[in-house]
Design a protein that fits this description.
Shape of chain A: elongated
Mean pLDDT of chain B: 87
Number of helices of chain B: 3
Protein name (chain B): DUF1523 family protein
Structural class of chain A: mainly alpha
Low-confidence stretches of chain B: none
Strand content of chain B: 15-25%
Order of helices and strands of chain A: HHHH
Helix content of chain B: 40-55%
Low-confidence stretches of chain A: none
Structural class of chain B: alpha+beta
Transmembrane segments (chain B): 153-170
Oligomer: heterodimer
Strand content of chain A: under 5%
Pfam family, one (chain B): DUF1523
Order of helices and strands of chain B: HEEEHEEH
Keywords (chain B): Membrane, Transmembrane, Transmembrane helix
Radius of gyration of chain A: 20 Å
InterPro entries (chain B): Phage_phiNM3_A0EWY4
Distance between the termini of chain A: 23 Å
Largest sheet of chain B: 5 strands, antiparallel
Number of strands of chain A: 0
Number of helices of chain A: 4
Number of domains of chain A: 1
């Protein structure tokens, strides 16, 4: 039983780590894309400046509610399902 | 330095290959001839090839375990011995705890060379006679004839997932580098450039002052 608990805690910690890293990653991708959008729309104000920072900040406000951000919860679901699948296929076939 | 890198890279590749070769499942077409339990000494040199002690089997005071074994014969006539042991909940992640059921299945599928029943045994691990190491059987499927070679889907899927993970980590690292590390280096660089410019300018100014003071002393007219 202790081994099972240890597995659950370990898997959960790894999933949390991947969730945080992937969250940083997709937010960074979105910010980069927003900066490119700004530079395309305002060629005169391209580059790193306060107006662009403000635009990116405002555009990122609802990001946690977007589909991409919600799909990130699959990081917790898929590996857990995979482990349950392996347990099933190895032991009940 | 180049050769050091090449040697280290080859060694890393070899370690990764051996690791995957050991822990991924593989399938062999065999005929089961016998199944039994045997007290097996698990010593410090080969304990890495057995399940960790808290998984299923009990170790006695002399460091022996009552391990289940499955003896088989391959279609080419060579013998192969599997062990049948629970893996427990950690490593390798097969989460196997039905070795008693698997043993009953294997015993049921025993056959003679006169009337062979061919089966495909899925197992992981290596047979190393000099270390008394045996691959651990995971599952047994019956086959129609000895030439049948079922595709090893599990290992393929795991390899694909590992490659995808590797690509993902590479992309994440590239993004982190582009957006976080490089700008930080650039800002430090710019700061350093500004500092050296300032120092350069003030030293030129100082030189100018000293020069004019010297010229005054020497009685030359100011420029």
């Amino acid at each position: 039983m202790a081994a099972l608990l240890r597995l659950i805690v370990l898997v959960f910690l790894i999933e949390v780590m991947f969730y945080l890293l992937l969250r940083i990653y997709i937010r960074s991708l979105r910010r980069e894309r927003l900066e490119e959008i700004w530079d395309e729309r305002h060629p005169d104000m391209a580059g790193n400046n306060r107006a662009r920072d403000e635009f990116v900040r405002k555009s990122m406000v609802g990001f946690d509610k977007s589909l991409k951000s919600r799909l990130l919860w699959l990081v917790f679901i898929i590996p857990t399902l995979a482990i349950m699948g392996i347990v099933y296929w190895v032991n009940w076939q | 330095m180049y050769y050091v890198k090449v040697v280290l890279g080859v060694l890393l590749g070899l370690v990764v290959f051996l690791f995957l070769d050991y822990s991924l499942p593989s399938k062999n077409t065999v005929r089961i001839t016998n199944t039994y339990n045997r007290l097996t000494a698990v010593t410090s040199s080969n304990s890495i090839f057995y399940a960790s002690e808290d998984a299923g089997t009990v170790e006695n005071a002399a460091g022996q375990r009552d391990v289940r074994f499955i003896e088989t014969v391959r279609p080419n006539g060579k013998v192969f011995v599997y062990r049948n042991e629970d893996t427990g909940w950690i490593w390798p992640p097969y989460f196997k705890y039905d070795s008693a059921n698997l043993h009953a299945e294997a015993t049921n599928l025993q056959s003679t060379s006169a009337a062979p029943t061919w089966v495909s045994v899925t197992a992981y691990g290596w047979r190393l006679p000099w270390l008394t190491a045996y691959p651990n059987a995971i599952s047994i499927d019956t086959l129609a004839n000895p030439n049948e070679r079922p595709r090893n889907w599990a290992a393929m899927v795991i390899c694909a997932v590992l490659l995808i993970l590797l690509a993902l980590i590479w992309r994440m690292w590239a993004q982190f580098r582009e957006r976080t590390i490089d700008p930080a280096i650039k800002s430090v660089d710019d700061g350093w450039d500004r500092t050296t410019d300032r120092v350069g300018a003030s030293s030129a100014q100082a030189r100018g002052r000293i020069g004019s003071w010297w010229q005054k002393l020497a009685g030359k007219p100011r420029k």
